[in-house]
Amino acid sequence: MRNGGQLLVESLVALGATKGFGVPGESYLAVLDALHDTKGTLDFVLCRNEGGAAFMAAAWGKLMRQPGLCFVTRGPGVTNASIGIHTAMQDSAPMIVFVGQVGTDMRGREAFQEIDYRAVFGTMAKWAVEIDDVNRIPEILARAWTTALTGRPGPVVIALPEDMLTSLTDAAPLAGPARVAEPAPDATAMADALAMLQSAKRPLILMGGCNWTPEGRGALQAFAEASDIPVVAAFRFQDQFDNFSTAYAGEAGVGMPPHVRGLITEADVILAINVRFGEMTTDGYTLLAVPVPVQKLIHVHASDREIGKIYQPTLGIQAGPNAFAAALTPVMGGWADWRAKARAAWEAGFDLPPLPSPVDMGIATAHIREVLPEDAILTNGAGNFTVWPNKFYKFGPKARLLAPQSGAMGYGLPAAVAAKVAFPDRTVVCFAGDGDFQMNCQELGTAMQAGAQPIVLILNNGIYGTIRAHQERTYPERVSGTTLENPDFVTLAKAYGFHAERVARTEDFPAAFARARASRSGAVLDLDISPDAITPRLTLSQMRAAALAAKDKK
After folding, report:
1. Are 267 and 202 in contact (CB under 8 A)?
2. Who's near 257: CB < 8 A, 6+ residues apart?
3. Which domains are seen in the chain, by residue range?
């Protein structure tokens, strides 16, 4: 006989879980007790806030292609964690959130910290369920694991009533995960897709999602290169295609470069693989007409619910991205010039004029590109600063980007901690704005305790930059609620055991970054990108235009 907490934890071990992120709570003490016996096999990473824990689990799912596990207590605990649940859903990242619940004998009375999890998370998560019977833990957990991973991956919320967890059962734990093969493309549909591409004048591949395998990515790259078809990554999925490939042409996301917009609008056939067609990738649903695009659209997705959800495709194919990529065979249509022009436009975007801030992030990011190892992991939250890791870093086949499609501030640091937990020996660099950093800076404590300290670059300009930019455009000279008075980030980071420095000049950055990389206790670099010296402020499009104009004059 074992109690519900033991049955749950033993089943998770059998499924292959190795890490769980969370904040303890009295509502699931039986689970915490069971985790006492799995140290070294299934470890509990103690976090400082449930929001940070949920971000870590969401990032783990995105990075590892296995459900990230988050353990939180009822009521306030899980509502804190809701930001990570929402992020995992928009990222299509596999995740399971275990939530302590009031005892079944108190349910429905608005007991202490009670909420209805199905009502609260029914539209935010892929599935929300409560386990009332201890004997059903293996059944529901197996379903949750499969649900999180298959179709369009996403988060599952499981409520665990306190009395259920302490009940005894002779039910056997799970023996292992179910093996679910990716849906493969129909042969006739595959032939039709290739014929549509073959007849195209300006074909384009749009790809995304976080459930690609190395083999799947390699197969798609080989097809794109052999066929001379340019590839654009969906918002914040540029790490899923080798940026050094001659077929890669950029990312369709926030701050979309003009050439990417042009590729999407001018293409006559778009092969969209594993893409959910979010607002950012479509520039507010303006690049393709709703519901029937002008472009011929081949939409490939493992979930039938994604195909035709927004855009009616010319051809919809229900197939996993890796199985579909493996079935591709090259097509020849004489598109070398179309592909080469797209690639050249992307490369030209890296040529920036000097930026008049104390630390020129164009120069700093170029240095980072040169010195980071090929398997580096970059993370970021939300804000204008994300343009640097998202638009000005080149991701090779081993590099990864953990960035939220939900636009959630505070994601970058927890994601970086999760990445260091997963891969202690890899270089992990978090880009954070000063406002973004302060959303979850307490997770430096989690990093310290777990021995998972990344490098954190704080782009410090003393404002909520994105909102200030909108404010100055819409309500000029009426600044309100966007100026920050920040703490001493160096002192704060040192209190958590990190190496920390203030970098006030561009020329000081390379040496400071070298010291950060050499530190065994992680590092926080507070970079002065104060807007005081930036007059007038230029958009990235204006900077690119200025750089290209300067080259033309030469």
Report:
1. yes
2. 250, 345, 346, 349, 391, 541, 544
3. 2-169 (3.40.50.970), 187-348 (3.40.50.1220), 361-542 (3.40.50.970)
Spatial separation of the C-alpha atoms in residues 104 and 442, rounded to whole Å:
34
The amino acid occupying position 235 is F
Q: Dihedral angle at the C-alpha atoms of 310, 259, 536, 512, nearest 10 degrees?
A: 100
317 close to 324: Cβ distance less than 8 angstroms: yes
pLDDT in tens, 111-158: 677 788 888 898 999 999 999 999 999 999 999 999 999 999 999 999
State pLDDT tens for residues 163-212: 999 999 999 999 999 999 999 999 999 999 999 999 999 999 999 999 99
pTM: 0.94
Structure tokens at 389: 């890791």
Phi–psi pair at 503, nearest 5 degrees: -110, 115
Task: Map residue 120 onto helix, strand or coil.
Answer: helix
| Whole-angstrom distance, CA of residue 528 vs CA of residue 532 | 11
Strand partners, 298: 271, 315
Q: How far apart are CA 242 and CA 224, in angstroms?
A: 11
Count each helix (H run) and each strand (E run) in the chain, helices first. Answer: 21, 20
Neighbours of 451 (CB within 10 A): 12
Burial call 458-480: b when 16+ CB within 10 Å, e when fewer:
bbbbbbbbbebeebeeeeeeeee
